[in-house]
Design brief:
Helix content: 25-40%
CATH topology: DHBP synthase
Strand content: 15-25%
EC number: 2.7.7.87
Number of helices: 7
CATH class: Alpha Beta
Organism: Streptomyces luomodiensis
Largest sheet: 10 strands, mixed
Subcellular location: Cytoplasm
CATH superfamily: DHBP synthase
Structural class: alpha/beta
Strand order of the largest sheet: 1-8-2-3-7-4-6-5-9-10
Number of domains: 1
Number of strands: 10
Order of helices and strands: EHEEHEHHEEHEHEEEH
Catalytic activity: L-threonine + hydrogencarbonate + ATP = L-threonylcarbamoyladenylate + diphosphate + H2O
Distance between the termini: 50 Å
GO molecular function, one term: L-threonylcarbamoyladenylate synthase
CATH architecture: Alpha-Beta Complex
Length: 209
């Protein structure tokens, strides 16, 4: 288990470099986001994603979501980005809004039983964004075993996940409100979970045209 304090620019670059190497080797990394701490794996490594789900103590019926560094990366992961999805991303990214979209059928990945969809988000956290720019899209979930409270500090994450994670990036305390989830796979967009972005704010953007 390797821990890097990333609360200065120089330290962050060092930690992100080591975390990127760990991810490319198929290991798990814990890092802060703008919501809670996340646990991430190489999105295109089926074995790595399986290790992530095992650390979460859950099966493929609860698939991982994907974090991206920018909208262009998200577009490459989905079959198409409908206008409503683009408006939401441009309004709330980087930020605490997750979008469920049809996955690009050509992608060689296995996030779990996604039924042909992928949930994507661009987090508003400098450490997370630096890691995503360095390592590419990450399969991720909150840094806690299923059924336990999400970690908002590195200490909470290490206590809950321990040696199952190769590298931990410490960014101090995070928030404790999850992202809002919007499903854009059906004809009518639907808010599946209200989190940090209010339902009313989502509806305002969806009906802005």
């Amino acid at each position: 288990m390797h821990v890097y304090d990333c609360r200065t620019e120089v330290a962050m670059r060092t930690g992100v470099s080591h975390a990127t190497d760990a991810l490319r080797a198929g290991h798990l990394v814990v890092f802060p986001t703008d919501t809670v701490y996340g646990i991430g794996a190489n999105a295109f490594g089926p074995q790595a994603v399986g290790t992530l789900l095992a650390a979460k103590q859950r099966g493929a019926d609860k698939p991982a979501s994907v974090l991206v560094a920018d909208l262009a990366t998200a577009e490459a992961l989905v079959r198409s980005l409908r206008p409503e999805a683009r408006r939401l991303a441009e309004e709330f990214w980087p930020g605490a809004l997750s979008l469920v979209l049809p996955a690009a059928p050509s992608l060689a990945w296995n996030l779990g039983n996604t039924c042909g969809t992928v949930m994507v988000r661009m987090p508003n956290n400098p450490i997370a964004l630096a890691l995503l720019r360095s390592a590419g899209p990450l399969a991720q979930s909150s840094a806690n075993p299923t059924g336990r409270p999400p970690a908002t500090t590195l200490e909470q994450a290490t206590i809950q996940l321990g040696e199952s994670v190769h590298t931990y990036l410490d960014g101090g305390s995070t928030g404790n409100t999850p992202s809002t989830i919007v499903d854009l796979t059906a004809a009518a967009p639907a808010v599946l979970r209200e989190g940090a972005v209010p339902h009313a704010a989502v509806n305002e953007v969806l009906h802005s045209d």
